[in-house]
């Protein structure tokens, strides 16, 4: 039986020549000599792996020297309330791809969302950045050329085939099992394909860990559109998906596999995958992937763990919650989007002890630029869509209500406040699937860090915990010495 998502790789092999030195192909692994896997492109430009191999030794040396020179500098102070408050604000994770400023929002390798929209290569038929180009940027700090981005698209799509046991597993899952649980199960089952796990079992040297982590990460990225689409088609449609197009970019393949041919929807996929990818390292999905990866679990197991965190309603699942909340609001107000009516609905939600989904953020203290990028997309493509008007009406009122309510540190909308509306417009209406799309996107942000972690030899995570009793003793000791 032919595996789902199997690409006709003829187009790919024309572009990628002399594939892998040492006999490890894009499919099954034979790790006889543990070779350095290098893909060369016939266009003469360097591949992502070659560029990373050139860039990271000096970065690793820079980190080594930095630690040596300044390792004893105190970079912060920890308050007891932070230990009880989800470790908010404690600087304790190294994350190279992006940094989040509370007021300015995210910067990917120093670039704002508006800048990546301008600078990154785009598909010939689109206006939005290619997420595979963002992956390149996050991993190396460099913007790829159009040719390099295109070659990376082809490389990823050549890795899209799913093993039969994963297809059977997905086909056998109950339709009412949440799509995120299905997503996590499928990614975990891909552990059977892990080149890192096999190389590790054969005693590969630490300096080569990154090489197999890189291969697993690209294999996983290539398979995610097929997994996501298989789940979507199994749960909500006829269970059938088309074939991967080896000559199309990642966003187009994802859109088409899901069953959407609309060009604007495809461009939305590119934007969606780019803006949801990375939001520095402390959020639940990024931190979990990083934490589990620090135990040298494979990219499959590390990413699946991160996805279990993304499935939580306070994190990625908020995009589903937003939509459910908006639908109830629409039903209740019956076309009356006046300030007073929406304000009353917001207060009802708050008074019933619930949060306003899509508002607030652990770090941000202004409107999330990811929200703004999606709002601008809606303004460009469907300014008169009723649900978009409702989202805009809530945006006018909610920050004021939340400020008056007085609890939330950030009364402004976050990314999840807008994403569902865009998908609704193009007919992807099944809200319980939305977090899976977020998950596909998150892979573009967390996998580069996993590769970097292996390249620089990041330590296993092991922060210190105390019981409340021990914290009391600690506090008593500190207050006694300071008084
Ligand atoms: C994102 C979120 C989890 C951040 O949590 P946080 O860092 O603890 O946020 P804050 O420090 O501002 O929380 C302080 C208080 O305000 C409340 N609060 C925060 N956001 C709120 C919101 N959108 N509506 C109502 N209350 C909110 C918190 O529940 C908390 O109340 P408590 O003291 O009774 O526990 C939180 O804002 C939230 O639950 N938002 C709604 C869900 C959402 O949109 N998640 C997606 C995030 S990208």
Automatic annotation (TrEMBL):
Name listed for the protein in its UniProt record: Citrate synthase
GO biological process, one term: carbohydrate metabolic process
Entry-linked PROSITE patterns: CITRATE_SYNTHASE
Residue runs in coiled coils: none
Keywords, comma-separated and alphabetical: Transferase
Active site: 315, 361, 416
NCBIfam families: cit_synth_euk, PRK09569.1
GO molecular function: citrate synthase activity; identical protein binding
Highest taxon of source: Eukaryota
Family: Belongs to the citrate synthase family.
Matches recorded under Pfam families: Citrate_synt (PF00285)
GO cellular component: mitochondrial matrix; peroxisome
InterPro entries registered for this protein in UniProt: Citrate_synth-like_lrg_a-sub, Citrate_synth-like_sm_a-sub, Citrate_synthase, Citrate_synthase_AS, Citrate_synthase_euk, Citrate_synthase_sf
Keyword Signal in annotation: no
């Amino acid at each position: 039986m032919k595996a789902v998502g199997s690409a006709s790789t003829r187009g790919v092999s024309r572009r990628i020549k002399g594939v892998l030195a040492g006999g490890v192909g894009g499919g099954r692994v034979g790790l006889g000599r543990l070779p350095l896997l290098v893909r060369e492109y016939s266009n003469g430009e360097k591949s992502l792996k070659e560029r990373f191999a050139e860039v990271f030794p000096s970065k690793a040396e820079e980190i080594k020297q930095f630690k040596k020179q300044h390792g004893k500098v105190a970079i912060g102070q920890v308050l007891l309330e932070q230990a009880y408050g989800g470790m908010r604000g404690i600087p304790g994770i190294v994350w190279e791809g992006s940094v989040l400023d509370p007021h300015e929002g995210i910067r990917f390798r120093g670039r704002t969302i508006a800048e990546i929209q301008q600078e990154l290569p785009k598909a010939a038929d689109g206006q939005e950045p290619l997420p595979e180009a963002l992956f390149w940027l996050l991993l190396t700090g460099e913007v790829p050329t159009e040719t390099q981005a295109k070659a990376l698209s082809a490389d990823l799509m050549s890795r899209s085939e799913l093993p039969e046991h994963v297809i059977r597993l997905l086909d056998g899952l109950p339709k009412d099992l949440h799509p995120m649980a299905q997503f996590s199960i499928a990614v975990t089952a891909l552990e059977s394909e892990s080149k890192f796990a096999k190389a590790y079992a054969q005693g590969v040297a630490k300096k080569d860990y990154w090489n197999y982590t890189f291969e697993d990460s690209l294999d996983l990225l290539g398979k995610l559109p097929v997994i996501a689409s298989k789940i979507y088609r199994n749960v909500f449609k006829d269970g059938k998906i088309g074939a991967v197009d080896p000559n199309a970019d990642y966003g187009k393949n994802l859109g088409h596999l899901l069953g959407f041919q609309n060009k604007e929807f495809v461009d939305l996929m590119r934007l969606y995958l780019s803006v949801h990818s990375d939001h520095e390292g402390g959020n639940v999905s990024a931190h979990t992937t990083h934490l589990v990866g620090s135990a040298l679990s494979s990219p499959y197991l590390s990413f699946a763990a991160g996805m279990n965190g993304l499935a939580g309603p306070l994190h990625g699942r908020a995009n589903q919650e937003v939509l459910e909340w908006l639908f109830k609001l629409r039903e209740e107000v019956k076309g009356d989007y006046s300030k007073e009516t929406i304000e009353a609905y917001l207060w009802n939600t708050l008074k019933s002890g619930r949060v306003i989904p899509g508002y607030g953020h652990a770090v941000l203290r202004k409107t999330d630029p990811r929200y703004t990028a999606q709002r601008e997309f809606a303004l460009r493509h469907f300014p008169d869509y009723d649900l978009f008007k409702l989202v805009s009406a809530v945006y006018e009122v909610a920050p004021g209500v939340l400020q008056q309510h007085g609890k939330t540190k950030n009364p402004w909308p976050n990314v999840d406040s807008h994403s569902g509306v865009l998908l609704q417009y193009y007919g992807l209406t099944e809200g319980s699937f939305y977090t899976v799309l977020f998950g596909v996107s998150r892979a573009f942000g967390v996998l580069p860090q996993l590769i970097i972690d292996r390249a620089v030899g990041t330590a296993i995570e092991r922060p210190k915990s105390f019981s409340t009793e021990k914290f009391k003793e600690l506090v008593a000791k500190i207050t006694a010495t300071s008084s």
